[in-house]
């Protein structure tokens, strides 16, 4: 029993470390190609290298890190192909999540979403916007009660946020919440079919806008090297 508890504690610790590193990558504090050094993280968290190593393996499996010759674990480069793959997965799973979530939407949940939109709008910084996207996903898709799909949705969103950080930082693009507001207005009217159609069209439009800009960013980056 004690052995099982130790394993659970180590797993929980490694997941916490992975969450911390993942967020640092998403918010741009770790750059593409930057080394993730086990010894430094062990010292920072005050733990042995074992949970740090497990956290790094987890992030490698999620596509945030990769093994680079002579460097070890580094932040993975974001490519247009990886961005397209991530978005394709999201377009496949979001309709199923929303169709199962709609029957569980309540007035309280919609009010929670509206309050979150209002709060973010009052202090619209990049960090606040990215934090908003993480929180609003739980509100929108969490009620679908499909844990396996929600797990993939969370991973793909976090990979997607890496591109969003580049998109807004590098090109001074405006951060908009109008789409979220309209989506929940439709849900308040229980016009779920229209809400789903509107949301999917919104996602496709934003993907194309970001894909064009991101493609140019990767070309410019290669030229500058």
Automatic annotation (TrEMBL):
Name of the protein this chain belongs to: Transcriptional regulator
Coiled coil feature spans: none
Signal peptide annotation: none
Domain named HTH gntR-type: residues: 11-78
Keywords tagged on the record: DNA-binding, Transcription, Transcription regulation
Gene3D superfamilies associated with the record: Winged helix-like DNA-binding domain superfamily/Winged helix DNA-binding domain
Pfam families, alphabetized: GntR (PF00392)
InterPro entries for the chain: Tscrpt_reg_HTH_GntR (IPR000524), WH-like_DNA-bd_sf (IPR036388), WH_DNA-bd_sf (IPR036390)
Organism whose genome encodes this protein: Solitalea canadensis (strain ATCC 29591 / DSM 3403 / JCM 21819 / LMG 8368 / NBRC 15130 / NCIMB 12057 / USAM 9D) (Flexibacter canadensis)
GO molecular function per UniProt: DNA binding; DNA-binding transcription factor activity
